[in-house]
Design a protein that fits this description.
The structure holds two protein chains of two kinds.
Chain A: H1 2-9, H2 13-28, H3 35-60, H4 68-84, H5 89-112, H6 118-137, H7 149-156, E1 158-159, E2 162-163, H8 164-182, H9 184-194, H10 196-201, H11 206-232, H12 243-253, H13 265-284, H14 289-310
Antiparallel strand pairs in A: 1-2
Helix pairs in contact in A: 2-13, 3-8, 3-9, 3-11, 3-12, 3-13, 4-5, 4-6, 4-11, 5-6, 5-11, 7-11, 8-9, 9-11, 12-13, 13-14
Chain B: E1 5-16, E2 19-30, E3 34-38, H1 45-52, E4 60-65, E5 68-69, H2 75-80, E6 83-86, H3 98-102, H4 118-131, H5 148-161, E7 166-170, H6 178-193, E8 197-201, H7 205-211, E9 214-219, E10 222-228, H8 234-242, E11 260-269, E12 273-281, E13 285-290, H9 296-304, E14 311-316, E15 319-320, H10 326-331, E16 334-337, H11 341-345, H12 352-357, E17 365-366, E18 369-370, H13 372-385, H14 402-414, E19 420-424, H15 432-447, E20 451-455, H16 459-465, E21 468-473, E22 476-482, H17 488-495
Parallel strand pairs in B: 3-8, 3-9, 6-7, 7-8, 13-20, 13-21, 16-19, 19-20
Antiparallel strand pairs in B: 1-2, 1-4, 4-5, 9-10, 11-12, 11-14, 14-15, 17-18, 21-22
Helix pairs in contact in B: 4-5
Classes of the chains: A mainly alpha, B alpha/beta.
């Protein structure tokens, strides 16, 4: 047990970074530490966090998924379309999530059976899925969704004062955390990313593991998209553009290695918090959005540089 | 001072984080000698070399080169004084040509323009290779297309082209074929005649007696002694290394050979091998000999399901074994200890626990959930059984010595309680003590009725351990010997294509 704590000390970097940023913002902005703002902030990060959780699995296997934003857009449009045509909201959500799973599986199949590098494969599907969204929506937002209480609840609801998206994020975190830590599948994710050859020779079907991580990521992306759709009460064809970058940034900030085999989900949650807190804080401080990008990029760079230094 | 010594290291001390890894070590090399540096894994050989070449700083002691005190802070400085290391993992860039590799970082150019003098470099490359007596390496060939043996020659040529006076070779023969080893020894011989000193690090005892003049032995970071090779013996060196008599090199075997377990019929795989027919019985060890590249590993991969066969049949207990993925063979009770433990055997950045569990995930879990307690029990049990020297099950396998890493690989496969265990070069890069432990484990397994196939390039090992020996030559079965029928000459004869 003692060893575990020491082991985790080296993983504390991201958390310390987050705390420092929070303290600075707490001192410089009066409204930062209000309950309202904190809940608001958590709701803002839930979308990126959900995508980044999936991305963590993908990156742990040594891959990358650039298509998450496009999958989000297509899944949301599909769900919104079905809602607008009067389908039962829960069924529409279910089909949307299934579509996300399938789009992810397509990525996984191209990468494993087609033996295409993940970067290239998902770069291509990113474009294809975005195009499909534009075709499906005819390039226009889908509005006039159902006024079903349950669908509105997803993005706008509260449970005991906590925004529903935050609860979804925490449930997803808990489930995925245990999958990664305590299941055969989780073990296989790490070993395939650490040494694919050795894993296959140990009887692990590496292809299946990979197809699953992309599928999970696809589904989580659509879940994020549905939250977004519910909040805006419409699905935008350009939704999710560049979301892959924030997700990758969260994973990397959290200390997961881009070469695979090393990393943890808690780090990704912290990484997503760092990005969210920065966005939120800089807004509160009325920093121009032009400068915000410079600050955000610099923080990511700094974090990665510090991480290198400590290794 | 004795000026015969090219390099003299005296009373070297070195600690890492309070851990003393070198203690009062002496090591001196004379000009033009081949000096073996031996010791078990973790005895301090590599650390000593790293202290010499300036990768590690020393805590105490002196180093003199040609009588002058030196402190190197970088291998480049050692190189300037004529000390070059050739590592086990070669420093060759595969996409560049032989000449480009030779002149890497010190290209010849016209003045300071940066325009390369290609022809000049080629001529010099040819000259350096000639000096080694190697003439079959075209300077314009892409280095990656050459065999490991030839790549190694490029490194040696590069070293002498910088006027190296001492070349340190770390396990130089580990990846070479027998023919390549012969030509490497010729090169070493000619370097010795030219007055170049060689420090030769190897676990292969036969080689030490074949080419070395003197030997220095380390044990647990301490200097045990230096002796002329002529005044020592195999047993004496082993005793110096392990600190006690190991007894018989190959432990006595007492297993009862049972029924046929595995039968291979007319197995073939594309251009790799064909017409492979053999059987292995319960409790039997079948040794598989042959030259490097003869197709031995490929045959084993195919039986294990890691590669597709193009023809033939494999029967396990009389029933056809149809495997398309290693997973199928593991289920059937076949374990495969691969030749290359770093690339194929272990996930280096995971712990012993996670590596051992990899082949046993089903056994330590329930409905997809890994049970920590079951996993711990399995792993601790195997660590104990195999005497893995470790700080605990959560130690990263990366930080274990070669012998202990190999034991982790074996542990991984013992966990599945195999009926057939295939071991491909099981003792490569493993020290004598651990080697004997591995033979011992193999014996225990056969006593329990497990069938073993052992591929090995070390003939004494093949002869010492096997019940039967199958020799492979260029993808075909050359001969099968019973225990006692074979000797080194007969095996080599069959392995090189003699009738």
């Amino acid at each position: 047990m003692k060893k575990k704590i020491v082991n985790n000390l080296s993983q504390l970097g991201p958390l310390i970074g987050l705390i420092i940023i929070v303290i600075i913002l707490g001192f410089t902005s009066d409204s930062f530490f209000t309950m309202n703002n904190i809940l608001n902030l958590l709701r803002q990060i839930s979308i990126n966090a959900l995508i980044a959780f999936g991305m963590t699995f993908v990156i742990l296997t040594g891959g990358i998924d650039l298509s998450v934003g496009s999958i989000l857009a297509f899944g949301s449009a599909l769900t919104a379309g079905m809602l607008a045509s009067g389908m039962d909201p829960m069924l529409a959500v279910f089909i949307g999530l299934l579509a996300g799973l399938l789009m992810g599986a397509v990525n996984g199949l191209i990468i494993t059976k087609g033996k295409v590098a993940p970067f290239i494969a998902t770069l291509a599907t990113m474009t294809i899925f975005r195009g499909a969204t534009l075709v499906y929506t005819d390039g226009r937002p889908i509005t006039g969704l159902s006024d079903s209480f349950s669908f509105e609840m997803i993005g706008k609801g509260y449970v005991f004062g906590v925004p529903f998206p935050v609860i979804l994020m925490l449930i997803a975190f808990a489930v995925l955390f245990f999958i990664l830590r305590n299941t055969i599948f989780g073990r296989q994710v790490y070993s395939v990313g650490g040494n694919e050859e050795a894993s296959i020779l140990s009887g692990i079907r590496a292809d299946r593991v990979k197809i699953w991580v992309y599928s999970i990521t696809g589904m989580l992306s659509v879940l994020a998209g549905i939250i977004l759709t519910s909040r805006l009460n419409s699905a935008q064809p350009t939704a999710g553009t560049m979301y892959e970058l924030d997700a990758i940034a969260a994973v990397v900030l959290g200390g997961t290695s881009l070469t695979g085999g090393r990393g943890w989900l808690t780090g990704t949650l912290i990484g997503a918090l760092i990005i969210g807190v920065l966005d939120n804080g800089l807004n509160l401080l009325n920093v121009s959005s032009f400068y915000q990008q410079i600050v955000k990029g610099s923080v990511i760079l700094l974090a990665v540089l510090l991480d290198r230094r400590s290794k | 001072m004795n000026d015969q010594n090219l390099v003299k290291m005296s009373e070297i001390d070195k600690s890492f984080a309070g851990n003393r890894v070198l203690q009062n070590v002496n090591f001196s090399v004379q000009a033009g000698e081949v000096h073996a540096l031996m010791g078990e894994n973790g005895a301090g050989k590599s650390t000593l070399i790293k202290v010499l070449t300036g990768i590690h700083s020393r805590d105490g002691g002196t180093i003199t080169v040609k009588g002058k005190d030196v402190i190197f802070s970088h291998p480049k400085e050692a190189e300037k004084q004529g000390i070059v290391v050739i590592h086990q993992e070669l420093n060759i860039i595969p996409h560049l040509t032989v000449t480009e590799n030779m002149f890497l970082g010190k290209e010849l150019s016209i003045g300071k323009t940066g325009i390369l003098r290609k022809r000049e470099m080629q001529t010099q490359t040819l000259e350096s290779l000639k000096r080694l007596g190697v003439e079959n390496i075209p300077p314009n060939e892409t280095a990656g297309n050459l065999s490991v043996g030839k790549q190694q020659m490029i490194e040696i040529a590069r070293a002498i082209s910088t006027n190296a006076e001492m070349i340190i070779m770390d396990e130089p023969t580990a990846a070479l074929t027998d023919r390549e080893i012969t030509s490497l020894f010729k090169v070493i011989e000619s370097l010795r005649k030219q007055g170049v000193s060689i420090v030769y690090i190897s676990h292969r005892m036969e080689e030490i007696f074949q080419i070395c003049d003197r030997i220095t032995v380390l044990r647990d970071g301490q200097y045990i002694g230096t002796k002329p090779i002529k005044e020592t013996s195999f047993e004496a060196i082993v005793k110096m290394m392990v600190g006690r008599d190991l007894g018989e090199r190959f432990p006595e075997r007492s297993s009862v050979i049972g029924d046929t377990l595995l039968e291979v019929k007319d197995l073939a795989r594309d251009e790799w091998f064909e017409g492979i027919n053999f059987q292995v019985k319960e409790g039997e060890i079948l040794g598989v000999a042959g030259l490097m590249g003869a197709g031995r590993t490929e045959i084993m991969e195919t039986i294990f399901g890691a590669a597709k066969k193009s023809k033939g049949q494999v029967l396990l207990q009389g029933r056809p074994l149809d495997v398309t993925h290693p997973r199928d063979s593991i289920r059937a009770g076949i374990g495969f200890i691969t030749e290359d433990r770093k690339d194929e055997g272990l996930v280096l950045n995971l712990s012993i626990r996670e590596n051992v569990a990899l082949t046993n995930l089903k056994a330590v879990s329930c409905g997809g959930w890994v049970s920590n307690a079951r996993e711990r029990d399995l792993v601790d049990d195997l660590i104990k059984k195999l005497h893995v020297r470790t700080t605990g099950r959560d130690q990263e396998v990366k930080s274990l010595s070669g012998g202990n890493q190999q034991k982790v690989v074996i542990a991984k496969w013992l966990g599945i309680e195999p009926r057939l265990l295939i071991l491909d070069e099981p003792t490569r890069g493993v020290d004598v003590g651990a080697k004997k432990e591995i033979y011992h484990i193999m014996n225990q397994l056969t006593e329990q009725g497990v069938a073993i196939i052992m591929v090995s390039s070390e003939l004494p090992e093949i002869l010492g351990v096997s019940d039967r020996i199958m020799v492979i030559h260029e993808g075909k079965m050359a001969k099968v010997f019973k225990r006692g029928e074979a000797d080194q000459e007969k095996i080599m004869h069959a392995a090189t294509g003699g009738e």
